[in-house]
What we know:
Layout: H1 3-12, H2 18-30, H3 36-49, H4 54-65, H5 69-81, H6 85-92, E1 98-102, H7 108-113, E2 119-123, H8 131-136, E3 141-145, H9 150-156, E4 159-163, E5 166-167, E6 171-174, H10 178-187, E7 191-195, H11 204-214, E8 226-229, E9 235-238, E10 241-243, H12 245-248
Helix pairs in contact: 1-2, 1-3, 2-3, 2-4, 2-5, 3-4, 4-5, 9-10
Amino acid sequence: MHPIERLRYVARAGGADPVDLVSEAAHALGSFADDPAGLVAAARRLVARHPGVGPMWWMCSRVLVAAVPEEEAWAASADVEADDTAGVLAAALPDEARTLVVGWPSTVVPALARRGDLEVLAADDGTGVDVGRVLARVDVDVVDVPLEGLGAAAAVADVVLLEADAVGPDAALCAPSSRAAAAVARAAGRTVWLVVPVGRALPGPLWDACVAGAVDDDEPWEAGADVVPLDLVDRIVGPGGVVDVAEGTAPSCPVAAELLKPARTPGSHRP
């Protein structure tokens, strides 16, 4: 595939799994290794089209500051593909725990599928993705929870599991309704774990840009994502295990200043 066509494909791939997005983006960015200006423009376009995907910011920032961008793109892709956060989570969950999940957490679901002793409360986040059906096929005890029952489910769950699409110094970007679930769980004295796979923890400037692109301050309820304050979270689950919030949200990439400038759109020109 021509580099420009691959870039367009990745830029338009809405709703894809972050691991797949990073892999395709690595191919796209690697094609611009001999074109520094084109590399910057391509990276800006990718994060502009996927503002709420933490691994995209993480990978693009790593590539832009690297001495050998093509090698860094492949290294970032390999890091994401080798992530075993799902395995860590599967091993760490308490025996026979009643566990609440919201939406389709792409790392959490495979972890739950490995544990036949759990009772999973699968809350609908309005996207229509049927987590309950998927888990039921592998003999997991699962209960579908309608959106109006989210608060009641959070109040009785042993563990509320949220997955971060991105996480910054003081909050995480998660599936819609995640903030409500975490707040109710905290008020009810329940445990909230935030799952942070490889590539999701961002330094402050990238986090700010990520949230600004993904969530409209004037109408945050239309964003298709929730900003969850980290003070509602008890523990972080990541590739290194179950750790405290500060350790689990430490930034894992540099800040590429070029990403903080707006991407040029077709027909735009320099002043």
